[in-house]
Structure formats: structure tokens, C-alpha cells
């Protein structure tokens, strides 16, 4: 049985390797473990009792009972509860912030401290009040003393570290847009999720503490101080230029180098077709850099006049990271790493696909650290070394072992870090920390 958390196959676009991922949904590792006990509060959860995770639980739990490290230096850290699905993480020197989902606890926010070598909950639980906590969006922290995260059905939370004599983090939240929670069509979070990669169209990112953006569905918001304190989220860009009633546009990620150089990634979609979308904000305007045209529910993406066409595997651009003011990388179609560059003559794109001989599973996260690329997927972490050579594929991808007491066999939702000595790979019931090159 599938309930709201995971979109049933066919309810949203499944393209390229994404379609294969949904076709094999009962065989992948993206499902939530069955709860060990009934929730203490009403929390909608997926039922995966018939999935492969149930069979793998005993092996995985034994592997993570005590901290262990893989041959490539990925070490398990002890989570405060055993049923956490760690969905996103933001790493800082000495710290990390993560957002997780639990069938018994709802959405939870955690902080890691190198000094304490442990995870602690820091949320105030209001995110799980009736009508909230349906799923977690992306998390971002400008420094170790404050953090932002998104949570369905369209909230952004901002937390500040306590100052003595206070001992608890303080939180405020803002609602993005106008949502009628009594309307199932608006309150149903599955409407805003990609069925194959489970990427929420909800998140937050900023260039600094005073310059923070959020996205929800097809709209980009910018924070501004509100009367009476706190933040107000002002819509600055709406992608509503769909070509048919069945077509929708979503945003999934953001990155940039300054307040005048911010990028947003997403997709234009129909039933089983999709085009990658990239929007660039400069000092003067928002500009649609990449897009495409869909002529049917299963037709391939075609070139749209005036925009860059990102070819390769059919699908959306779900993870992006700026390498500099004129260079951007992203994960497209769960297989291709796209590099977008700008120059005096315009924008160009180069692709470096991850070969199926390295991993046949779809990938759902990407990070660039030092000169390496790190990608996470279905039970694997992939490391890319010099994958471009003068704009042409010429490097190598290889698996980075995350096997502890045997293979984990679970999805990696995100790989992220500050250096090759401070990397995280997070997923179902685990958070792996790599502190060696």
C-alpha cells in the first residue's frame, strides 16, 4: 500500500531512468521502514512491510548497533532513534544539521557536534501539529548558530541557537503562499513530489543570514523582515507559463555565489515526460536560462526558443551547486551530471553521465567537494574524479564503499560536506560521516 508520502506511479512525471525506478519501486530502497509501534500522535506514514527494507532491517540494525567504518572511511553515527529517515543535511566545520522523517515521531530536526560526537534533536515539535509534518523539505544553515528548513504543507522554519540562560533553540515559522488546509487538493503533499526520486518541491537556501530564499511548487520567495519581528516571505518569481492543462512546473533546489548570482533548478512536467528548468537571478532580474517544450504526455523534451536545452537522459534537474560565478553543476534525470557555463557569447552545457557499469541504480543527490564529485543513490555512493577534460567527458567514476557489517542496501538521500575530510551520506536509519580523504 502507498499513501501520501510516496506518490503512486503515474501521478507525476516519470522520465528516463526515473520511470525505471518507479517501475521497480518495490525493489528499490526508498521506502520507509514499518513502524515498531503505533504513533503517539496521528502521523500519516507509508506502509513498506512488504518491501525489501523489512528483510534488510535485521542486517542493517546489527550493522549500525555500534559505530563501524567502511573500507573507504564512511563511519556510522548513532542516531537518537532507530526509525529515522534522514532526508537532507547541511554540513559546516564542526557541525551538521539534518532533517528527518519518522513513522512514530513525524518530522524531526537534528544537530551534530564534532565536539560531542553525537546527534541531538533541536526542533520544538510544532512542525508536527495537525495539518503539518507531512514531509520534510530541504535544510540550510548560514552558520552553526542558526538553521532553516522546509516542512509540508508549505512552511519554512528559522531556528536560533539558545543563549544562556536559555537551553532550547528558539523557532519561528512562515507560511509560503496561501494554502487551504481543508482542501485536499492543496493540502495533499504528494502533489508536489517526484514519484521516482522523492524530491520535495519545497526548501530554503541563502547566500547569507540576511539574504534567504525559499521555493514551493512553482514559486520562488525572498525573505524580508516582517512588521513586529520575524520574517515575511515575498514571492519574487512564479513559473506559470505552462503549455497545457496537464503540465506543471516545479522548483527543487537553489545555489549561488552572491546575492546577485542565485540559481534555481526544477522541471517542466507532464504524465511521463519532463524538461529541465534553470532560472538565474542577477542584480537586475530573474531569467529563464534552460527550459524545453513538451508536446504530449510521453513526448521527449524539445528545444524551447531563447533558452538552453539540457540534453542527455530525459528528466528534471534536481540538485545543483555553483562552482563559481560562471559555472554550475547539476544532477539531471538521475543519471547525468550537467555543467552549465556562461561566457560573453552565452550559456553552454556539457554532460558527464555516470556509467551503468558503475551503478545501474538511479542517483538522487550531487555535491562537489574540492576537485571531486560525490553522488548518492540506491545503496551507493559514487565518487567522480576529473569527469570533465576541456568540457569533454574524460575522467572516472567509481563506487566509494559504504558497506559496514555487510552492504547497507538502503537509499542515500544526500551526500554533502565541506571537504573530503568532512563528508556526510545520509539515508534510511543512518548518517555516515567520512573524515578521511
Description of the structure:
This protein is mainly beta and 437 residues long. It has one domain (17-434): YVTN repeat-like/Quinoprotein amine dehydrogenase (Methylamine Dehydrogenase, Chain H), CATH 2.130.10. The protein is built from three helices and 30 strands. The chain has helices at residues 17-23, 52-64, 184-187; strands spanning 74-76, 85-92, 95-102, 106-113, 118-121, 136-143, 146-151, 155-160, 170-175, 202-208, 211-216, 219-225, 231-238, 248-258, 261-270, 273-281, 286-290, 317-324, 327-332, 336-343, 346-353, 363-369, 372-377, 381-385, 388-389, 392-393, 396-400, 412-419, 422-427, 430-434. The strands form eight sheets. Strands 1-30-29-28 form a four-stranded antiparallel beta sheet, with no helix packed on it. Strands 2-3-4-5 form a four-stranded antiparallel beta sheet, with no helix packed on it. β22 and β23 (372-377) form a beta hairpin.
List the helices and strands and how they pair.
Blueprint: H1 17-23, H2 52-64, E1 74-76, E2 85-92, E3 95-102, E4 106-113, E5 118-121, E6 136-143, E7 146-151, E8 155-160, E9 170-175, H3 184-187, E10 202-208, E11 211-216, E12 219-225, E13 231-238, E14 248-258, E15 261-270, E16 273-281, E17 286-290, E18 317-324, E19 327-332, E20 336-343, E21 346-353, E22 363-369, E23 372-377, E24 381-385, E25 388-389, E26 392-393, E27 396-400, E28 412-419, E29 422-427, E30 430-434
Antiparallel strand pairs: 1-30, 2-3, 3-4, 4-5, 6-7, 7-8, 8-9, 10-11, 11-12, 12-13, 14-15, 15-16, 16-17, 18-19, 19-20, 20-21, 22-23, 23-24, 24-27, 25-26, 28-29, 29-30
